[in-house]
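Form 12-C: Joint structure prediction
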Amino acid sequence: MAVDKNSNAFTFIFAILMVIVVGAVLSFAAMSLKPLQVQNNVEKKMINILTSIGVDADRDNAKELFYANINKRYILNSTGEIISTREGEVESTDVEDPFNVDVKKEYRDPTLSAEDRNYPLYVASVDGEEVAIIPLVGKGLWGPIWGYVALESDFNTIYGANFDHKTETPGLGAEIKESWFSDPFIGKKIYDDSGNLVSVNVVKGSAEPENPHAVDGITGGTITSNGVDEMLERTFGVYNSYFKNNSQISQKQ
Amino acid sequence: MSTETAAAANTQEVVKEAVPKEPLFSAKNKRLLTDPLDDDNPITVQVLGICSALAITVQVQQAVVMCMSVLFVMLFGNMIISVMRNVIPSRIRIIVQLVVVASLVILVDQLLKAFIPDIAEKLSVFIGLIITNCIIMGRFEAFAMGNKIWPSALDGIGNAIGYAWILVAVAIVREIFGSGAISFPGIGQIKFLPESFYEAGYMNNNLMILPPMALITVGIIIWIQRSRNQKLIEEN
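Section 2 - Result
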């Protein structure tokens, strides 16, 4: 049978068939690889959380170390009240599980105001001391930046921090994920002596080493540094009331 | 119209029979593999695919994964286009080529994300950008549309390797001078510069990590290649 390959009908049929075949192949591939990819993201998140408390994990032992170190997971609302608590295994279908709260997605969602978002908080015990880990999310120069900050039980001293980014400039803004940037945060205070929240500022140039509220910014990465600064201040602001309430409780005791 | 096509098909068949069967690795087929390595290199001679060569040659392992992805897309893309070459309506052939390359690239991207997530994260957007890699569309249009499946497969492999060796060469230079060591998955970092260099005041060249140095490195490779291969020197 001779078919005119240049006819409109043939062109349309060819195009339609091609799209159906390609669509089927790709959706099959995406569906069958999805569980592996989700698993990878979970491991990555666990590694990031563990890095903020100074635990080195890789993909093989991420789960094990996560459950060994992180005791409790909370979701707070914007006024600092606990609205959900979980312990033990993470159920991937459990939307109330703090681990499954996608702070990045909620931050980007224009229909959610800052009051409506969920604020997860992880409690780890390190050397017998309770450490609170909070996720951060903000804007860099080219795309989102995020990280985790761990605070000692006084909810004031930073125990550790780690940052990551999607598309910051390599060698400049991208340096926020390096330890030379995040290590100086250790030991900094987020409240001043009279108990006012001052956060930790990422300053241009170099910060005084004795200044408990400042760390070095990145030369050539000012906008990313400012993004980190803004993200810290905003997030501490939200958790502020939780920190205040809980540190008062511990002081009374 | 239909009789014309039938007649054309007939003459084609006659021609096919007249040509004696070629051995699989005839001199002509071998040239398809070896030409892109030197005389017709996609990067240094045709200057295609430069964007990815600049972006992901900071680390050797990234470059290798990128090259394997390109090899996969080139090989299967060339073969698919070659199989379909007599069916593709010529008016939408570029769109068809684009669909083939795009779906192969999405497939590679999904596979990388599932099996080697850490490297996939570093390659980020550049796997997706294989779609716009001129080498691939160029080979589809210039070669696979007009050749049988076996030569097309060889041509795909040849061009992908021609692309790959430049990328890996640039990556080796950049990683050694930019980081002082090459990291291999599973083995860890292997230092190439002795500690005494650093004690004597040597520092890793940060410029090497930035894209401009990749362009300069590619330029140096082109310079060396042209000084050795007289065929590439234009007359004027």
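Section 3 - Comments
The CA atoms of residues 79 and 149 of chain B lie 5 Å apart. The two ends of chain B are 49 Å apart (CA to CA).
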